[in-house]
Amino acid sequence: MTPRDPTDAQLAAQYEAFPYPRRDPRDEAKRLVVGSPSHLREVDHWVFGAARPAAQPLRALMAGGGSGDGTIMLAQQMASLGRPGRVTWLDRSAAARRVAQARAAARGLDNIAFEDGSLLDLPGSGLGPFDYIDCCGVLHHLPDPAEGLAALASVLAPGGGMGIMVYAPHGRTGVYMLQDALRLLAPAGDAPADRVEIAKRLWKQTPETAWLRKNPWIDDHIKGGDAGLYDLLLNPRDRAFSVPQLAALVAGAGLRIACLVEPLRYDPDSYLADPRLRARTAGLDPIARAALAEAICGNMGIHIAYLTRAADPAPVADWADDAAIPVLRELDGPTLARGLRPDGVLTVTFDGLRVPVPLPRLAAAFLARIDGRKSWGEITAAVIAGGASAEQAARDRTALAAAMQRMNRLLLAAP
């Protein structure tokens, strides 16, 4: 675990002083931190195309596991659903390990293995192979992100996939300006506690014209405690990736982007109703379309992506399969159905940006019956028994799946 360069040594010291994100193991009794990547439902759907049997043990790696959010989420979801397998936490921070282990103990989770080390040392480490690898918020801090992604790919099992998160440039407007300021006021050679104090003082004195003051989507320096402030404004190395830069990084490791979360957010037609503009967007390839959405929205501070090997068949969930079981991610079907507007438009919000999503006429009838147990065929038969024609039910089922899958809210369960 020898640091790769002086900046890497500073990063290692940072996460010992301020395990990230700030977490209190006592809070495990109150809530489970849920998000992307590595939500089990998302992994089943986007990485494995809802084709990998739930009974098959899942070998997962959390590379740069930090204080444990992704590790605890995935391990708890596996335990709650009776899914076999093990989650391996890997990080070089002893302080972060203590937090993550205490959180696991508070939940009584016994499906987690803790390993000390750097993801850069995975090749030849004897760890793996892994069916699923999470690398959330790590690649953008490495001396060479391409080396890091290649190291992860080296322990990825055949047919496996990854979930990653990297910073994005436009939504972080203002962050790098204050990082520059703090390099002058709180140089890396100062003690971490002194640097935090100076950063807090600077934030209080920062003029209203500072771009970070105008950026409502970045708040780790306000709500994340000292660890959040340090990670955002005092971090010795972070870089942001545009969509094309991320795509190039992924392709360089022999991987492909299976999904950008949420797909709807990366579709420029979600924001552009003008038919002449849409005629232009229609001629763009998927990465260019996503890059356009990123550029015109300006509020994407991170990119979350699920990856698979470029040489493997692309995972595609089969929505035409009557035996498939649809699941709503953190939504209750009947409640959502009752709350739909009369015009059938569902409004979703992405970091302050409201996007109207038209749903088909029978959306409420389908949503009210989605409970994570009934199959698509059973649900469709019930909708038809309720008075819909078979043709209309088939059309609306397809339209509903297309609309809500793009929101990352309606997925197919593992068989």
TrEMBL record:
<dbReference type="InterPro" id="IPR013217">
    <property type="entry name" value="Methyltransf_12"/>
</dbReference>
<feature type="domain" description="Methyltransferase type 12">
    <location>
        <begin position="63"/>
        <end position="160"/>
    </location>
</feature>
<protein>
    <submittedName>
        <fullName>Class I SAM-dependent methyltransferase</fullName>
    </submittedName>
</protein>
<keyword id="KW-0489">Methyltransferase</keyword>
<dbReference type="InterPro" id="IPR029063">
    <property type="entry name" value="SAM-dependent_MTases_sf"/>
</dbReference>
<dbReference type="GO" id="GO:0032259">
    <property type="term" value="P:methylation"/>
</dbReference>
<dbReference type="GO" id="GO:0008168">
    <property type="term" value="F:methyltransferase activity"/>
</dbReference>
<dbReference type="Pfam" id="PF08242">
    <property type="entry name" value="Methyltransf_12"/>
</dbReference>
<keyword id="KW-0808">Transferase</keyword>
